[in-house]
Amino acid sequence: MPVITLLQTPPDEPIKGQILQMVVDYLTDISSVALPPSNPLYSLYQYGIGYEVHLYLEALSGARGIPVELLVATDEQDPSRLLGFVLYLPVQDDPQACAVAYMAVLAGHRRQGIARALLGQVRERYPHVELACAVGKVAYFEAMGFQVLGARGPQVLMNTRDHATEGLLAVLDVAPIYRTLEVQQIHAYLLKQHGKRTMVDAEKQRDRHLDQLTRQARAFVQQRLGDTGAQAAASLRLV
How many domains does the chain have? Predict the structure, then answer.
């Protein structure tokens, strides 16, 4: 069985490095954009999500003024080896609630109960847990006690209760990442490597992909909850 540890300060560099590597490797699973590796923009979004998670790991120090917690699952025989993690955000004004921001399990250790154990410990600390996932993963989280609440863009909003908390969820503004010099340099490199037409097509493919996921999520929720339930589904208030 893995050893699960709660971290409320930034992890040591070896664990941090493994978290960031896992995030980059599993971009399609973790990111709401869910961009496939075949899209030429894939490496750009790998950088983006890696930097997002880096900022949240830094926020564990309290320097950014938002509450963040991290659970890591490590190998019992080799504590330096990361098997999985869940990074989540406690909700202000509601001590029982939190929202899962990022979660991943090493590919070779999936279906061994690691994600269930991680989320189980999150629920012990915060019984009211919210997360968003792709339509294809809904049944997986339902088996862990989550309920469908509504659609949020390309993802389905799920909760351990039949309603969202009314508390405030503080999140980092990650949009500026995609305006940084580093992202501009990556884009310039990709443009040089693939050509303008290919990159324009890649952006169109991304947009069509997101539109398709959004329609799928909306249709799924409408089928599951009915039109009234889908329209009435609440979400956390973001700050």
Answer: 1
Residues 55-87: tens digit of each pLDDT? 999 999 998 889 999 999 999 999 999 999 999
CA dist., res. 78 & res. 179, Å (int): 39
CB 129 within 8 A of CB 153: no
Left, alpha or beta for 153 (phi > 0: left; psi -120 to 50: alpha)?
left
Given pLDDT bands bounded at 50, 70 and 90, which one contains residue 238? low
Show the domain range for 219. 3-238
Which CATH number belongs to the domain containing residue 33 in this structure? 3.40.630.30
Bridge partners (DSSP) of residue 158 are 131, 148
How crowded is the C-beta side of 222, counted as CA atoms within 13 Å?
A: 8
115 near 146, Cβ under 8 Å? no
Q: Name the residue among 216, 218, 215 with its Cα closest to residue 229.
A: 218
State if pTM tops 0.85: yes
Provide the token pair at 111: 């279906």
Residues across the chain: 239
> Rounded to whole angstroms, what are the CA distances from 103 to 73, 83, 98, 184?
11, 11, 14, 28
